[in-house]
């Protein structure tokens, strides 16, 4: 009889342990980009959930110079570290949206990859950083210069990208953090396939999935630039390609976006989502046609948009189908799309919890100054997860 009781006890303990393990929500990573455009931080008590900071940006081109001995930044790691809670990891973000040529040069050969990686390691040692964030956002094409340099000319980068990351990991060692900012739109995930993602994730601690700018000037109809459904599609694409959900961080945008629309084609639509826009990008050069824009919460509202934006704040609504706050100004033919504090809170159960993601991040911390309302909403989501863990 004793062996049976022991077996039953063991089974009960095993099931109970598994149930508690599944129920507990682990502490999420919370990464803040600290940008040169808005180098502002709130009082440290508002930053207690921040686990990592990425100082943005350092140009990748500086790491291709074999004689380089200085590492230019708009601030220092020490200055940034002093603004955040103890034990916050301070990283240096390398690259950015249009700054890609340095990555292409670095990735070209074994020798160039090695030089780049060794210089990254020197920079980390000299600055005291805890790691780097690789912001080569569009390896393989579809970057800012995609009309000047066709994707076919960059196809080789798809295989070179994980090789470059491998060299950086080898130079930095396992005790330093390496992350990467990666596209949020499927059309831009040229270098993130079932063949490459497993290779990429061998060398990275996590991915910052840019689930914002999901509507941009390459689009021709309105959608939510940081919407729930589009964000889910992005996360699911990386998981399907081989990334573990715990390795993914969901991106939040502390800024607004606006796009001008075609009045006659939109005015009679029952739903402004999917409304045709004006021509946003030059089809030959890829240049901005001046029909789209945006600004952070830190910035003054442009005078020509102030009246429309006030209406967007007062009269906007949340799309329960696609997930996103929006307003279509039928008088001025402007589509507004941005996250409110409420929209941010909704993303925790709808995306972070549903997909069991490992963290969140925001571009960027200072962009939410001086009120830091959206940071507070992010904190609220993180606090509710911590509270549910403590209650178990």
UniProtKB/TrEMBL annotation:
<dbReference type="GO" id="GO:0005975">
    <property type="term" value="P:carbohydrate metabolic process"/>
</dbReference>
<dbReference type="InterPro" id="IPR050314">
    <property type="entry name" value="Glycosyl_Hydrlase_18"/>
</dbReference>
<dbReference type="InterPro" id="IPR011583">
    <property type="entry name" value="Chitinase_II/V-like_cat"/>
</dbReference>
<feature type="domain" description="GH18">
    <location>
        <begin position="28"/>
        <end position="385"/>
    </location>
</feature>
<feature type="signal peptide">
    <location>
        <begin position="1"/>
        <end position="23"/>
    </location>
</feature>
<dbReference type="GO" id="GO:0008843">
    <property type="term" value="F:endochitinase activity"/>
</dbReference>
<protein>
    <recommendedName>
        <fullName>chitinase</fullName>
        <ecNumber>3.2.1.14</ecNumber>
    </recommendedName>
</protein>
<dbReference type="Pfam" id="PF00704">
    <property type="entry name" value="Glyco_hydro_18"/>
</dbReference>
<keyword id="KW-0732">Signal</keyword>
<dbReference type="GO" id="GO:0006032">
    <property type="term" value="P:chitin catabolic process"/>
</dbReference>
<dbReference type="InterPro" id="IPR017853">
    <property type="entry name" value="GH"/>
</dbReference>
<dbReference type="InterPro" id="IPR001223">
    <property type="entry name" value="Glyco_hydro18_cat"/>
</dbReference>
<dbReference type="GO" id="GO:0005576">
    <property type="term" value="C:extracellular region"/>
</dbReference>
<dbReference type="GO" id="GO:0008061">
    <property type="term" value="F:chitin binding"/>
</dbReference>
């Amino acid at each position: 009889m004793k062996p049976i009781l022991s077996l039953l006890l063991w089974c009960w303990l095993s099931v109970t342990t598994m149930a508690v393990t599944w129920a507990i929500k682990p502490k999420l990573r919370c990464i803040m980009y600290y940008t040169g455009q808005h180098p502002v931080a709130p009082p440290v008590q508002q930053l207690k959930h921040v686990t990592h900071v990425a100082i943005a940006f350092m140009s990748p081109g500086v790491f291709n110079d074999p004689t380089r001995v200085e590492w230019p930044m708009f601030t220092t790691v020490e200055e940034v570290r002093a603004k955040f809670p103890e034990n916050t990891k301070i990283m240096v973000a390398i690259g950015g949206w249009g700054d890609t040529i340095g990555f292409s040069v670095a990735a070209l050969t074994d020798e160039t990859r090695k030089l780049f990686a060794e210089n990254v390691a020197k920079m980390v040692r000299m600055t005291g950083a805890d790691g780097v964030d690789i912001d080569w956002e569009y390896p393989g094409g579809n970057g800012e210069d995609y009309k000047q340099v066709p994707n076919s000319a960059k196809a080789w980068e798809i295989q070179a990208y994980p090789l470059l990351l491998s060299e950086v990991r080898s130079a930095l060692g396992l005790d330093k953090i390496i992350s990467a900012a990666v596209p949020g739109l499927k059309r831009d995930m040229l270098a993130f396939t079932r063949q490459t993602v497993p290779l990429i994730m061998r060398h990275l601690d996590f991915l910052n999935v840019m689930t914002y700018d999901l509507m941009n000037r390459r689009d021709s109809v309105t959608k939510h630039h940081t919407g729930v459904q589009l964000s889910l599609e992005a996360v699911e694409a990386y998981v399907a390609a081989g990334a573990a959900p715990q390795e993914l961080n969901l991106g939040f945008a502390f800024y607004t976006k606006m796009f001008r629309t075609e009045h006659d084609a939109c005015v009679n639509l029952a739903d402004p989502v999917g409304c045709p826009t004006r021509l946003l990008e030059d089809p030959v050069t890829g240049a901005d046609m001046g029909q789209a824009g945006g600004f952070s919460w830190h910035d003054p509202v442009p005078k020509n948009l102030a009246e429309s934006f006030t209406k967007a704040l007062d009269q906007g609504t949340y799309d329960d189908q696609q997930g996103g706050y929006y307003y279509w100004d039928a008088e001025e033919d402007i589509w507004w799309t941005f996250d409110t504090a409420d929209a941010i809170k909704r993303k925790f159960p709808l995306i972070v919890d549903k997909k069991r993601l490992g963290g969140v991040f925001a571009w960027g911390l200072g962009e939410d100054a001086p009120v830091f309302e959206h940071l507070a909403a992010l904190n609220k989501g993180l606090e509710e997860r911590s509270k549910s863990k403590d209650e178990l």
